[in-house]
C-alpha cells in the first residue's frame, strides 16, 4: 500500500523558501499572492497491507526521521 | 483561496533523496519499505476567488517557476 506524508512548517515558523517563491512570483508578474509556504511531500510504498499498522509505522517514521517535531507538522494519508 | 501544489519527479527519473530516505529507514529498523519518492508541496494563499481563474494562474506559475517540466509533474488542488 501507499502512504503519503506531508511535512509542513508549524505556524509561526519562518519560511524563507516560501518567501523566496512569493517574491519570485511577484517579479514574474503574478499579483495577488498573499502567502506561500513550502513543505515536503513523501510517498512511501509499503509491503504491509493493514492500514492501522501502516499508520502506526509511518507515524514512528515521521517522529524518528522524516520530520523535525520542533518546527514541523506531519499528516499521513493511506491508500 | 488556497491552492495546494504537489511537484513530483516523473516516473523513471532517479530520486536520490528518496533512496537516501529509504536506506535511512532500513538502517533504523523499518522493514517492508519498497520505495520512497520525495516531492515538493507548496501552499499558495491567493486573493483571487474564482477557482477557474486560480487554476489557470497556478498552472502558469508551475510552468514558469515552480516545477521543472522536463523532469517533474505537478498537480493542483484548489479549496
Commentary on this structure:
The radius of gyration of chain A is 16 Å and the shape is elongated. The relative contact order of chain A is 0.35. In chain A, strands 2-1-3 form a three-stranded antiparallel beta sheet. Chain A has one domain (2-78): 2-Layer Sandwich (Mth169, Chain: A). Chain A has helices at 16-27, 51-66; strands at residues 2-9, 33-46, 72-78. Chain A is α+β, with helices and mostly antiparallel strands and 79 residues long. The mean pLDDT of chain A is 96. The A-B interface holds A 6-8, 18, 21, 24-25, 28, 30-48, 57, 60-61, 64-66 and B 6-8, 18, 21, 24-25, 28, 30-48, 57, 60-61, 64-66. Strand 2 (33-46) of chain A pairs antiparallel with strand 2 of chain B, so a sheet runs across the interface.
Amino acid at each position: 500500500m501507499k502512504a503519503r506524508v506531508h511535512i509542513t512548517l508549524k505556524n509561526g515558523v519562518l519560511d524563507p523558501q516560501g518567501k523566496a517563491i512569493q517574491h519570485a512570483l511577484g517579479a514574474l508578474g503574478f499579483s495577488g499572492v498573499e502567502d506561500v509556504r513550502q513543505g515536503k511531500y513523501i510517498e512511501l510504498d509499503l509491503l504491509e497491507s493493514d492500514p492501522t499498522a501502516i499508520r502506526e509505522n509511518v507515524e514512528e517514521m515521521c517522529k524518528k526521521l522524516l520530520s523535525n517535531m520542533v518546527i514541523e507538522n506531519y499528516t499521513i494519508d493511506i491508500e
